[in-house]
Each structure stands twice: as C-alpha cells, then as structure tokens.
Amino acid sequence: MTATAVVGMVTSLLISAATRRIDRRVVVLAFSVLLIASDVLVAVAANLPFLLLGRVMLGPCARYHVKRPTATCRSRPPVPHGLA
C-alpha cells in the first residue's frame, strides 16, 4: 500500500465522525482547498520529502471526493415520479 492509500483509508474511517456537525459546504470547500494545495505542492516539489507530503495530503481528498457523491445522493429528497 502507498502512503496516499493508507492516509485515505484512515481518513475514510474517521471523516464521518469528525465532520458530522460541520456544514457540508464547508467540508467540501475545505477538502477542495486541500486538494488544490496538494496538487500545487506536488507540481513544485523540489525534493522527495515535499513530493511525498503532497501525495499524503492527496489521500484524504481523494477518499473524501470518492465517498461524497454517495452521501450526497442519500441526503437529497426524492424526485416526484413524473419529473424524473
């Protein structure tokens, strides 16, 4: 397993409990900012430690953005039969 996968796995187990009381929009924005910061850090990394730090930062973002659509679909109200 890679460092990105390990951090993503740990995040996926803890993120629901950690963000339960925070507005979903704030959580999505925070993970999006972390994703952008990770991408920029990897793009400008001058040495291996910074590259690995950027990859480790990518783990929670990747896992959250994979998990988010399922949670969002469950929380939406049903569409009336004739409008779907």
What would you say this structure looks like, in words?
- With 84 residues, this protein is mostly helical.
- It has helices spanning 3-18, 24-44, 48-75.
- It has one domain (3-70).
- It has three helices and no strands.
- Helix 2 packs antiparallel against helix 3.
- The model has no long low-confidence stretch (mean pLDDT 81).
Q: What would a concise description of this structure say?
A:
The chain has 84 residues and is mainly alpha-helical. Helices cover 77% and strands 0% of the residues. It is built from 3 helices and no strands.
Key structural traits:
about 80 residues; mainly alpha; about 0% strand; MFS_trans_sf
Write the layout of secondary structure elements.
Blueprint: H1 3-18, H2 24-44, H3 48-75
Mass-distribution shape: elongated
Which structural class do you get from the secondary structure elements? mainly alpha
Query: What is the domain tally?
Result: 1
Number of strands: 0
Average pLDDT, rounded to a whole number, is 81
Q: What is the CA-based Rg, rounded?
A: 16 Å
Helix content: over 70%
How far is it from the N-terminal to the C-terminal residue, by CA? 42 Å
Sheet-strand content, in percent, reads under 5%
User: What's the helix-strand series?
Assistant: HHH
Number of helices: 3
Low-confidence stretches: none
Organism: Microvirga guangxiensis
Keywords: Membrane, Sugar transport, Transmembrane, Transmembrane helix, Transport
Protein name: Sugar transporter
Transmembrane segments: 28-53
